[in-house]
Structure formats: structure tokens, C-alpha cells
Amino acid sequence: MGKAMNKRPKKLSEPSKRERRMSILLSDDEQQIVDRYLDKYKITNKSRWLRETILMFIHKNMEDDYPTLFGEHDMRR
Questions:
Q1: Residue 41 lies in a domain
Q2: Is residue 77 part of a domain?
Q3: Which of 1, 12, 22, 70 could serve as 5's disulfide partner, Cβ 3.0–4.6 Å?
Q4: Phi then psi dihedrals of residue 31, to 5 deg
Q5: What residues contact residue 44 under an 8 Å CB cut-off, 6+ apart?
Q6: What is the mean predicted confidence (pLDDT) over 42-70?
Q7: Whole-angstrom Cα distance, residue 33 to residue 27?
Q8: Which of 17, 46, 52, 19 shows the shortest CA–CA distance to 33?
């Protein structure tokens, strides 16, 4: 039997279902800013864009706040 027959078919990971809802309120000015941005960059899926933008921001902040063995002052010396 060749190598191709010994390989098992790969399972495709299923994306997790989005079952939790979040709601926000925006002022008219804030809504116009978001809408202009979406139009300018031709973003058609507002929900996906909001979700990815929020999660990217959180992820970046968590990386920046990650505890290190040495403080910033000690590492700059």
C-alpha cells in the first residue's frame, strides 16, 4: 500500500456558531462615520467587520499587556 492509502481524510474544522448577540447604540454622527468608512473601503459585511475589528483591538491590547519576566525599564538598559 502506498503512502496515499495510509492517509486519513482530514476533518475540516467547523466554525463555531455565533449564538450570542451584542448590541450597541451610536449617535447619528458616529453612525455616519462608520457608514462612510464602510463605503470608502467597500466593506459589505458590516457585522463581520465590526466583529473582527473589536476582536483585533482586544487581542492587540492583551498582547501588549502580557506579563514579562523583566520590566520595561530593565530591558531597555
A1: yes
A2: no
A3: 1
A4: -65, -40
A5: 38
A6: 90
A7: 10
A8: 46
Which residue range is the domain that position 61 belongs to? 26-67
pLDDT in tens, 34-55: 999 999 999 999 999 999 999 9
> Residue 36 domain-assigned?
yes
The reply to whether 4 falls in a domain is no
Mean pLDDT, residues 48-66 taken together? 91
* Measured torsion, CA atoms of residues 43, 46, 12, 4, in degrees rounded to the nearest 10: 0
The string of DSSP codes covering 3-71 is: HHHHPPPPPPPPPPP----------HHHHHHHHHHHHHTT---HHHHHHHHHHHHHHHHHHHT---SS-
Contacts of residue 49, Cβ cutoff 8 Å, sequence gap at least 6: 38, 43
* Structural domains counted in the chain: 1
